[in-house]
Fold:
Amino acid sequence: MEKVRNYTLKVWRQPNAESKGAFKTYEVKNISTGSSFLEMLDILNEELSEKGEDPIHFDHDCREGICGMCSLFINGQPHGPEEEITVCQLHMRTFSDGATITIEPWRAKAFPVIKDLIVDRTAFDRIIQAGGFISVNTGAVQDANAIPIPKQNADLAMDAAACIGCGACVAACKNASAMLFVSAKISQLALLPQGQVERKKRALAMVEQMEKEGFGACTNTYACSAECPKGIDLSNIARMNREYFSAAISS
Amino acid sequence: MSLDSKIPEGPLAEKWTKHKFNLKLVNPANKRKYDIIVVGTGLAGGAAAASFGELGYNVKAFCYQDSPRRAHSISAQGGINAAKNYENDGDSVFRLFYDTIKGGDYRSREANVYRLAEVSNNIIDQCVGQGVPFAREYGGLLDNRSFGGAQVSRTFYARGQTGQQLLLGAYSALSRQIAAGKVTMYTRNEMLDVVIVDGKARGIITRNMITGEVQSHSAHAVVLATGGYGNVFFLSTNAMGCNGSAVWRAYKKGAFFGNPCFTQIHPTCIPVHGDQQSKLTLMSESLRNDGRVWVPKTVETAEKLRKGEIKPSSIAEEDRDYYLERIYPSFGNLVPRDVASRNAKNICDEGRGVGETGLAVFLDFRDALERDGVETIKAKYGNLFQMYEKITADNPYKTPMMIYPAVHYTMGGLWVDYNLQTTIPGLYATGECNFSDHGANRLGASALMQGLADGYFVIPATISDYLADMPYDKVSTDHAAFKEAEQEIKDRINKLLNINGKRTVDDFHKELGKIMWEKCGMARNEKELKEAKVEIQKLREEYWKDVKVLGVNEELNMTLEKAMRVADFMELGELMVDDALDRNESCGGHFREESQTEEGEAKRNDEKYTYVSAWEYKGDDKPAKLHKEELVFENVKLTQRSYK
Structure:
């Protein structure tokens, strides 16, 4: 039989971007250890709805750890205590019975709160728009096997491409730096032959946009990579710096 | 109104090429005079919006998520099919076409499916060009694996996250067009209606999900790419936000709905853990390449397992029933999804299911681990194994996975002609939201293929044929048709907010899902379908009297968003039941208990049901009208599908 547990939740409530937020305390009871963290919040929200209180708003969608929508800062850690997973994959068996759990939104100047635990991450989209692509029109390509790519490079590109754009790296960083996110895309494309033509332009444009959005600088704390649900490697940041500086010098 | 599928004349292999030549073109300088709306930014929508932008059209793209990169295509794990024949194992466009037609149990159009197979190769080229990091061999060339329903290896993949990589490819192309000013992107915006002016689709009504503002958007054509409606079952592998509202609104404005009852129940999902479950998680079909499906031979052993008295590893080889390998020796564990799902259900109905609930079967990697070693298996499925362990707290390297079927995909959707146009001129449907290519059952790794085929290659070609005849004039959003549609939406929102009932939206949704799953799910019969129809009608009536929707419109209000989606599901569910009742044959994922072979396999009735059901909305109080598009097969012979 599955066990059930009770928890005390301290949740950040903020009606909208303009208002000031505050923590509010809730008790949740009889939560199955097999439930996911978000299912636990669903249960609380059902109870709040029944009582006529506004449910806690949080972003979520696929609930399979891949869409990057869910974004909760739990007990001081983005996506909670478990390694290499998103909140939607976090299960209540991780938390002991009677525990107090603090839930906050991502906190960063570039990610303003929209409501409760939901933040605006469109800054990430704008960084990709600045250069996170290969300029190839539909149909204007050669056969997929025309350019062999060493497996090692393809694998490294895939490692970097695994980024889900959730923003945990920014939330984890004391400077709210987006270097891990930006470097993952720059690395993916820099590692592939298809990405070579626009390599310099891309690094310059994406870094410039990143700074414009108000993300902080990197001071090598490495919290980003430690908290990344997809284990994006720090070496991507080093690669991005190389890409950026060599582009800056030669342009 | 009669259905014209607009299938081009001529031999199968030449239809698309010839058709493309015959389609009218819009000259490059004139393209900028046309506005196109694209709703949804998954593979179909993202690819279409990007391609339209590249061609020079003005595009407005919409998604309900906070970024176009999050559309549910991202969750597709296993791969994408293409007839490249890089493996030299006898693949060809015709074979991919044949497998897809057969896999769909002969309920799809030959011409559409052939075109899909034909452009599949272009898709792989396109994605590689965009920098999609597909898996490669040591020689640097692309790697392939096998999927259900095929005896060749034609599936391209990027670890267990192919959908993510393909979507990010489309998203990067879309981002480029946004930066170029050709696409205006509206995130956190939900489409609530389509607007018809003089019989043509000329725009949509949306709700800004942050401010609650109801807005009108005008264009020369509207392309829907809004995905499937599997969430009508409450529990499914779809994302929480996936909904059928866009297609349902289009249906109510005159677009016919094709084969609504064709639902795919995916065999390899993580079993339900209890009442608190909010959604189901898929484990990729690719696992069936190496995992072997089994249950104990006897009910007694299964009972001991369920009680936890014995462990799966302690069951001797001769006491295990590898039932898929036993019943289907030639396809074994790689039978198509509908067959695998139905067999799992039968086994559990016999009392041989495992897990606490008895609603699960084993998917065992023991033999593959022994044969290939942990490292090889980890390289292939590492992230899937990790996901499984996080959710169930079981380690699949040590103990077999447990799986059970779950709602995954809807083959049904808006009826479209060969040009992907619905019965409303100027309104197109692409990807999962149309009915077109998968018949009664979709093969694995074909959803990604269809989404991108429609988005990159089909719709950019066919839409010009329509636009070429359209005047450049724009319709003002002050036009009465827009104002009326806006008002209807506002009234609907107010109505929901003012019911002040007792039951929550989720509570209703769960009840609807239960009716659908039990009576219009993996097995269907006349009696239960008729019961379901009455139950849904009753539930819907209660919904509009007793649902509790809190808050106001003018703010981020997730309860309100959901309430509108569930209201549409309440109607859509009934149409699915109507369609399932009409089709008194078993085909693909649609299994009517009245129509089965002696061995319990799905039995088609080609004489009576070789048609696409296209339902026309006739009013809330009137039954929908069924139109039939007869399917003509000139290139394949209809046979009883056999995977033995």
Summary: Chain B has a mean pLDDT of 96.
